Amino acid sequence: MSSILAPQEFPPSREEVSAVTEETEPTRNFLLVRGGRFSTGENLTTEQANYDGNYPYNNHVKGEYRQKTVAVDSLKPNAFGLFNMHGNVWEWCSDWYEGDYYKECKSKGVVMDPKGPATGSSRVLRGGSWNNNAENCRSAYRNNNTPGNRNSNVGFRLVFVP
């Protein structure tokens, strides 16, 4: 079951964020974007996310490269209280991946909350990981892999709904 919040409801309450039970691309974007390329604004440091600090975003100062995942609460949460929305591990989204899907949506005038193709062979991965550069951790960056893929830099987000 998915409960996606409409953009006019921004910012949502903690209760509304807790109601999101399936991670889709629009849900993830909604929880990430707060006026910048990252949930932190226009830049991302290794004090805010776990990624390869040798490759900062937009030529900013280099940071730490931890070379592994970190515990969920190792870094500060975002404004919604969610941890690791950038970096640490790529997160599976329920959307099927299609390389030109967003370009096609834009040409049709559908630019907000596209639902993704109905079928596919690869699922969307979002958020970047511990062994990626900061660019791959941007809110707009999409990756993909087949659902059977297992890797030390891919995971999923558990949501507890009391």
Features:
single chain, 162 residues, little secondary structure, paralog of FGE (formylglycine-generating enzyme), four-stranded mixed beta sheet, 12% helix, globular, disordered N terminus
Q: Mean of the pLDDT scores?
A: 78
For the sheet with most strands, the description reads: 4 strands, mixed
Straight-line N-to-C gap: 15 Å
Topology-level CATH name: paralog of FGE (formylglycine-generating enzyme)
The helix/strand order is: HHEHEEE
| CATH superfamily annotation | paralog of FGE (formylglycine-generating enzyme)
Class of secondary structure makeup: little secondary structure
Helix content: 10-25%
Instruction: Give the tally of structural domains.
Output: 1
CATH class: Alpha Beta
Write down the Rg: 15 Å
- Number of discrete helical segments: 3
Would you report the number of β strands? Answer: 4
List the helices and strands and how they pair.
Blueprint: H1 14-18, H2 25-32, E1 90-96, H3 101-107, E2 123-126, E3 142-145, E4 154-155
Parallel strand pairs: 1-4
Antiparallel strand pairs: 1-2, 2-3
